Amino acid sequence: MPATAPVVAQVAPTAAPPVATPAAPLATPDQRRVYTTADFARFAPKTAYDMLIQVPGFTIRTSNQERGLGQASENVLINGQRIANKSGGAIDELQKVSAGNVERIEVVEAAQLGIAGLSGQVANVIVLMKNKASGQFEWKPDFRAHYARPNLFRGSVSYSGKKGPVDYTFSVKDQAGRGAYGGPVLIFDPAGTNVETRHQIIHSESDHVTMSSKFKLDGPGSSVGNLTLAYTPYWSPFHSDERRERLDGDDRQRSIVQTLAGYYVDLSGDYELTFGPGRLKLIGLRHFEHQPVVTTQLTRFDSGAPTTGLRFGRDSRIGETVGRAEYGWKAGKNDWQLSLERAFNSLDQRGGLFVLSPVGEFEEVPFPEGSGKVQEVRYEAIGTFSRPLGTKLDLQVAAGGEISRLERVDGDLPPRKFFRPKGSITLGWRPAKGWDTSIKLRRRVGQISFYDFLAQPNLSQDRENSGNPDLVPPQSWEIETEVGRELGPWGKTRLKLYAHRIEDIIDIIPIGEDGEAVGNLPNATRFGGEWTSTLLMAPIGWMGAKVDLSFGFENTSVRDPLTHEKRPISGTRDRWAKISFRHDIPGSKIAWGAAASHQHYTKSFYLTEVSRSWEGPVFADLFIEHKDLLGLTVRFTAGNLLNARHRFDRVVYEGRRERDPVAFVQKNNQLIGPIFSLSVRGNF
User: Fold this and answer.
1) Rounded distance, CA 38 to CA 31, Å?
2) Is 325 in contact with 282 (CB distance < 8 Å)?
């Protein structure tokens, strides 16, 4: 995106069931942990998603935005099936499924399932759609004490039913957001003198209204099909206003306004049937997006000097078409799957740059590098073999590769063709009762943004990234291991460790004598870990109380293209922590709780500056929930109670940072303020 950095600024039963000592989930002979609806009764869930987020020690992994559809990455299944689309996956579907239609949730080691791509713990939500139609809704407004406009329209409504062999779901969801912060921005010269103070207010609004219809066909025979149609118009304006008071007296006012009003359409479908000795699944997906963005920057001078200004307009059309076939069969203890996929991706961008003339009109200047068309055609073939090696050990091996043709259609460079091997080896081991572990070695091909092939000015930071037609996707060797331990009545704990060696890592690289662009550096490393736990307080007599904990770290290393010294990968999250507490008061319909979180990021390295942006140090909130207020679940949350702030530090150089002196230092320490939110959920 051009123009601006994102504004984060953080954003039932009729009687309460008795709260007793939670029973351990049922364990099957293959050590699947089975949770029934009774295990979640005290939370008064309205949807299947409300149940899933209360599974002890389970961390939801949403689907990676891989190239095409690829192998499964979301660790949630519905009725044993991967939801193969790019419009929300299983998590989005479960938010539309009534809790009354959930039979059970199974947590199982991925290597036992024979589904290519999965590793670690996987939740399989068993849904039995009943003939009686039902719906669910949620309204989630929030309000901020400072700068932001009220967020009144966030929410969703869905209606599901069954007619003969067809299950249907209709839904509308507004993913609305309101972000804002404000306060001083201090500018220092190289000697440390405060030469400028900026009084800044930034606010942004977004509304993504998705209207979707999903149809599931059972039959004929054992065949099953799904069709999803979705249309999403969206609006996302951005405003930044600064009053700049300078030591030299040349005071001024600068404003940046960005308008964005576009839409995207998603159509996806699949059909699975018995074919020969196995099952054949055919999948199709089409995504189209129109994204027009206009960013205008104006600077007005107290001295009466002529107003200066820049405008960048970008009208983009983005397309993706994927066709995929999967064929799986069983031979004794062995599960086999072959998959073939063709994907076509394209970006057609028309960009224009304008300068404000002395008479107050924007006049276009030549900017041919801001327009162009990029496209890629890719073919992938993967074979997957899965089998148990014993009662406690499972193996999965996937191997294959992709070939692709990547080109700038309207340029004078020839198309580039690539062959990239990919695959994985996964072992799942259950050494003893209550223990599970997995290890996965993978060769992965990453994703790239076609926007980086074309020039994208950033008006808020007075910086421009040149287009780079030589950009290629990163590739990596990745090893990951997870170890989980059931703690009986105390809950569950889990540890994940990983190490990645990356080739052609995406970063900022020099272009020519003074330019810079998003490009590839030769290699990088990444290793880290995350510990997650759910601790139940019933063993110490605190009935209905639980604590969820998560702590993680990541260390990265890449060789800087200017200094040739090792440094972290730009802008990566290198440590984080979250603790949340919930107490469902026994014999009542009331629950309350609190949460606190911290995240830290590495610096971002550009050729002419080094910066770090973060918010904190700690976000904390309190909530109180009534689980049956006239049949509704109502929650009130007071957020950011420890006054986490928006922070941004930047060192800008006269030219290249390895050879030129510092021009100025910028420090932001700005108010976000408390955030109050309401959630009203119900069924009909």
Assistant:
1) 20
2) yes
In the three-class reduction of DSSP (H, G, I as helix; E, B as strand; rest coil), residue 657 is classed as coil
Q: How far is CA 302 from CA 161, 250, 299, 482, in A?
A: 64, 7, 10, 61
Tokens linked to 353: 């740059």
Continuous H helices in 313-355:
none
Give yes or no for a contact between 618 and 598, defined as CB atoms under 8 angstroms apart.
yes
Q: Nearest 5°: phi and psi at 274?
A: -75, 130
Q: Cis link prior to 220 (omega < 30° from 0)?
A: yes
The SS3 of residue 313 is strand
Q: Is 89 helix (H, G, I), strand (E, B) or coil?
A: helix
**Peptide linkage before 617 cis (omega within 30 of 0):** yes
Two tokens, residue 81: 């099936």
Task: Calculate the dihedral angle through the C-alpha atoms of 144, 146, 147, 149, rounding to the nearest 10 degrees.
Answer: 30
Q: Which residues, in sequence order, are bridge partners of residue 534?
A: 492, 548
Q: In whole angstroms, what is the distance from residue 498 CA to residue 505 CA? A: 17
pLDDT at 513: 75
Instruction: Report the sign of the C-alpha dihedral through residues 642, 646, 652, 657, in that order.
Output: positive
Give dist(CA 117, CA 67) in Å, integer: 13
Distances (CA, A) of 399 to 117, 494, 503, 678: 11, 29, 19, 48
For residue 212, list its beta bridge partners. 171, 230
When mean pLDDT is compared across 28-42, 505-519, 555-569, 601-615, the lowest value belongs to 28-42
Separation between Cα atoms, residue 557 and residue 524, nearest integer Å: 6
The CA angle 51-53-58, to the nearest 5 degrees, is: 120
Q: Which two tokens stand for residue 373?
A: 């068309």
**Residue 525 and residue 557 in contact, taking contact as beta carbons nearer than 8 Å:** yes
Report the C-alpha gap between 533 and 57 in whole angstroms: 5
What is each CA distance from 71 to 382, 383, 441, in whole angstroms?
9, 11, 15
Sign of CA dihedral 114, 120, 126, 127: negative
More confident residue, 105 or 118: 105
Q: What percent of the chain has pLDDT over 70?
A: 91
Is 550 in contact with 536 (CB distance < 8 Å)? no
The residues near 243 (Cβ < 8 Å, ≥ 6 apart) are 198, 199, 200, 251, 253
Residues listed for the chain: 684
The angle at the Cα of 450, spanning 444 to 452, to the nearest 5 degrees, equals 100
Q: Which two tokens stand for residue 413?
A: 């460079």
Minimal CA–CA distance to 385: which of 445, 330, 326? 330
CB neighbours of 302 closer than 8 A, spacing ≥ 6? 250, 251, 252, 253
Place 463 in a pLDDT band, splitting at 50, 70 and 90: low
How far apart CA 610 and CA 657 sit, in angstroms, is 8
